[in-house]
Amino acid sequence: MAQLGVRRHLISGLPSRTQSHGYIWRKLVRCIYSKTGIWEDEYNASTRQEVETYWKEKIHKYNESLAYKPQDNKEKYYVLSMFPYPSGKLHMGHVRVYTISDAVAHFHRMNGKQVLHPIGWDAFGLPAENAAIERGLQADEWTYSNIDYMRKQLKELSMCFNWEREVTTCSPDYYRWTQYLFVKMFKAGLAYQKEALVNWDPVDQTVLANEQVDENGCSWRSGAKVEKRLLKQWFLKQQHYNKALVESLEDLPDWPSGVKTMQAAWIGDCDGCTFNFKLQLGIEYKSLIKLHNTPELIYGAAYIVLAPYHTLLSKTEFMQCLSEEVRNRIQKLDKTTQDIDLGICALHPLTNQLLPIYVSNSPSIFNEDETHIECRLGIPSASKELAEFAVHHGIDFVPVLVGEEDLDSDVLINSKQFSGLARIKGRVAVLDYVKDNNSLGEAWTSPRQHDWLVSRQRYWGTPLPIIHCEKCKAVPVPESDLPVILPKLKSVSGKGISPLLQATDWLNVKCPQCGGDAKRETDTMDTFVDSAWYFLRYTDPHNETEPFVKDKADSLMPVDMYVGGQEHALLHLLYARFFNHFIHDQKMVSHKEPFKRLLVQGLVKGQSYKVASTGQYLAPHQVDFSGDEPVAKETGEKLIVQWEKMSKSKHNGVNPEELLAKYGTDAIRIAVLKNVPPRQDMLWDEQDLGGDWIPNVWKLVSRFIKLRNELGNTNKQTEDVERQEDEIKIKCNETINMITESYQSRNTTLNLVINNLIGLANRLAKASDHIIKSSTTYERALCSLVIMVAPFAPHVTSEMWKGIAGVSNHVAADFDLEKDVLEQQWPQAIESDLFPLIIKVNNNNIGKIPVPLQHRQNQDTLQDLVMKSAIGREHLNNVQIRKVIYNPSAKFKGSTAALMNFVVETDKQKVKKKSND
Questions:
Q1: What is the pTM of this model?
Q2: The domain 272-445: what is its CATH number?
């Protein structure tokens, strides 16, 4: 029997006899070439299932062999996709993001780079805790079971992750180092605790950072209306890095401009200063009030105004220092404009002058759109409104500015050593002075950005490594005692403030400084802290003595491409950059910015059906599609039909597992990338999975195998054969160049990659039998096509490659046929003595022809070749050519090209000319 034959192959067995059942016939089964040595000519559902079942295990083993080991002779490439939250099952957003990073990883590995493509789990957080409570489970049980299941799902998709570097943020060997970095921030003065008016989520029973409250005042996760509460909270001093974070956005040319604009706008202009004002309470200065203002005018400060919602007005200790009359007036404060003199003062940090403090709800002092601003420093020189306030209340003040209200020409006066400076120079001088004397305040800050509130009053998070002692106050846990292990809870039946309070054996400890009785901090960290540095842990994931070794991190950082959802384009990225800036300042890494290139993927959206009168979402089986418009089956009511982010509550999600069973892994991987650029939202349509592209490529391979194994002389050089070879060579070069450029472009347009692959496949399908039997050019193009499809569809291309490698007559020696397709080198465009000449008629593109490079500058010769070509005969015979425009330096799909535009006389022009006569 021949080794290769293009036919349906059935294995039939001989009858066998058993004692109890007589004759039993073995079933007829279909088997693929890799098992039988006989090629299947059709790629249908049963063939696909055989192919994926056979190759999945082999690809798993290949992926396991990709453990990252630095090699001096290889350039590194670190591609990272945002690690998933272990919710229990993958959704289509997961499939999309990991298919993108997987294709990119394969591309760079095939181009000879040493690729790091790690994966892990963002495993702490409220959803797991709430889900565990509902099921009466411990949070770790629920989380780890989800991780096991989702890991299996990812492996079913044959992602080439470096599983040997897997990290899990809820594992003590990870959060030990999160705590370590927090302690470093505490020692650097960047982590502090204060009583603050905070955002309280009444559903999830925890505090939210300002960034986690939407524009409607609702929780970003639960959707509940956020309440204001006064609680003692832990903060990270992100304001300290605001200016650096804004300035270094200029060092990120491969980030989307929209993301950089969003981050810069969120932080705001960092040309201000937060000054520390001590409050005079009796004869003692007990507290600090921080004010942000135009710093160059600080010597003109004459008073302070608090908003009615200022944190101080919620503190019992502070209110008790006020007179009963003042307290009563504050309680009666309403929308009617009132100013209340509190009868206490604050100490000016630079002049030691006592400034009176007022409360006001005047719209001229506090704009309704500035609810994040709790106080104003009254500098009459700064505005007409502030000057009127001072005059109205009889407050003395001195001018500190002369000029015509221009930053360059105004001059500072009555400002000690800064007097005489132009206002803009004075601002820089004051800011630098405060920076050098940090007890005065915080310089180069933005009024828009607050410090990062990281306390959470829930159980399932990284324990804050702080011990509270009456004598020593807040003391960091010694690094040698880390990690502070999260204890098991006796009860998992409900929510409440600080569930860790019930773990008494864990709670009560000795103070590390004085040895006295003390208690652990019972708040846990915001999960954004865990994900703010995980990309660094991947560089050294098994280190037991430090978070990572600097040399290892420096050899891999920054991340060359970071892929993730657009919902994380602000918060996560801002926090990760903040952490990396701090770690850089600690000389733990050499790179200040962690992510060199950013690909923000759009959402995968499904069509939803909502009842207009009630807002209820219906599942598709509850909808009647028989009429012109969808209506509710039960009521006949017209529905609101729209594309929305996939969600269980909206009944518009799809289960990847069901799609895998129905269409296979390769089809899903291609479908999530095929039709739209990665940056755009994708409108999910299952019909995209039923396309015939992959079966068509399979047919190309089938035809190649059949013709290459036929006997007889196939060398038949004719003018038509030469023309076909020239066209295939040009098309193949164009495709390789375009696809390579798409992978390397800032937008990573993988949809264009697939479109170009389809174009090359369509051209190869037109080749004659003579070409396929003997052409080196055709074989090279077909091999290149299969290799370039492999990052998207590794299973079917692995089988195709085995089929191509098994033919009898090979004429191309560009590839290693002994290795599998994923081990091949990326195809290179071959040097050619031909180039494409693009032909237009009246600016309409009608095609292109290959022409000799030697005639590039000879327009007459090229025009003669066009007229003799099939395109020329079809479009330019029997027409009046009025003008020929030739451009020898055009570009076409990444290749050198030329353009010839024929301006011809049309029927309309003839009529017009005749009428003019």
A1: 0.84
A2: 3.90.740.10
